[in-house]
Write a structure and sequence with these properties.
Layout lengths: L1 E2 L2 E2 L3 E3 L2 E6 L3 E4 H9 L7 E5 L12 E5 H31 L1
Antiparallel strand pairs: 1-2, 3-4, 4-5, 6-7
Length: about 100
């Protein structure tokens, strides 16, 4: 990403990619992409990474959704991750027991 011919070096902060803009303003890349291509974020709405990958900031993976929906999705994704991890641990335990 460049600003007036300068390269911007993104870094990971709070599980999201960020960049520093002129004036020492730090912004998340997903917020910059959605504001540039979708428009200003409505009050009470948040940016959602459709595929659940917080590092995937491609436009087709981003959308605005109400904060309450976003919280529900994050809870569902966390539950699914725990369930999947638990299932793979059980499988690993069974294979080591044999």
């Amino acid at each position: 990403m460049t600003v007036k011919g300068q390269f911007m070096n993104p870094w990971l902060k709070n599980r999201f990619m960020h960049v520093e803009l002129p004036g020492r303003t730090v912004r998340s890349i997903h917020s910059l992409v959605t504001e540039a291509f979708i428009g200003k974020r409505p009050d009470g709405w948040e940016v959602n990474h459709i595929n659940g990958d917080r590092l995937d900031n491609r436009l087709f993976n981003l959308e605005y959704i109400p904060k309450s929906w976003h919280r529900a999705l994050l809870t569902k994704r966390a539950w699914h991750k725990r369930k999947t991890a638990s299932k793979s641990m059980k499988t690993a335990q069974r294979s080591t027991v044999k």
